[in-house]
Design goal:
Layout: H1 12-21, E1 25-29, H2 33-44, E2 49-53, H3 61-65, H4 77-88, E3 93-97, E4 110-113, H5 118-128, E5 135-141, E6 144-150, H6 153-165, H7 168-173, H8 181-199, E7 204-211, E8 216-223
Parallel strand pairs: 1-2, 1-4, 2-3, 4-5
Antiparallel strand pairs: 5-6, 6-7, 7-8
Helix pairs in contact: 2-4, 2-8
Length: 225
Amino acid sequence: MAARTTNRRPDPIAHFVANSLQDKSATVVGAGAVGRQIAIQLVALGISQLRVFDPGIVEPRHLLLGGFRADDVGRPKVDAVGDLCHQTNPLLDFTGIQARFSTRQMMDSAVFCCVDKFAERRRVWRAVETRCPFWADVHVVEELVRVLIAHDEPSRRLYGATLEKFPETHAVKNAHAPVLISTSAVAASLAVYQFVRYVDGLPLYQDVSFDLAAGRLHIADTKHA
């Protein structure tokens, strides 16, 4: 049987990965449910270099909430995430640091902040705000997702002002409330999608909130890369 040739339009995603993301690097601060999802998605899109910071280890509760595997229990989160990422791309340049984010960290193309406490958010942001080309602050409380983006001088000023307005009580109010893995996946997708648009020179949405329970998406502001 002769092979058939099918004329197809070029796959825009494959074109993007081949030409845009393969030379990019990223840092993920926090390897919990959201950080793990962001790492997976970045690697699937073809990123070449990834650093992940998290001082914690995988606990039994992370199997349900974070999507970790049973044999990950007791291991550093960064090791579990690194193994999973290498299954997708064995050639990935991955560095897992079992510690808090270092203020001396060399800057990558993007920093994704996925920590629970706003005091830690502020610490990381103040260390990178003038050096980070693309910043995504990803916050999940129960079924409410919020993604804040900073990528140029106006958006950095706006993000810094917004960050200072967050009361610490809001960060810890529902700290122990369960966050479904599906919610984490949505949060990660919104953040990674903004990075894809940033790399491709498309308009960005600076402040996106998504209430999954109410099915309500809110875009507070739109900026251009």
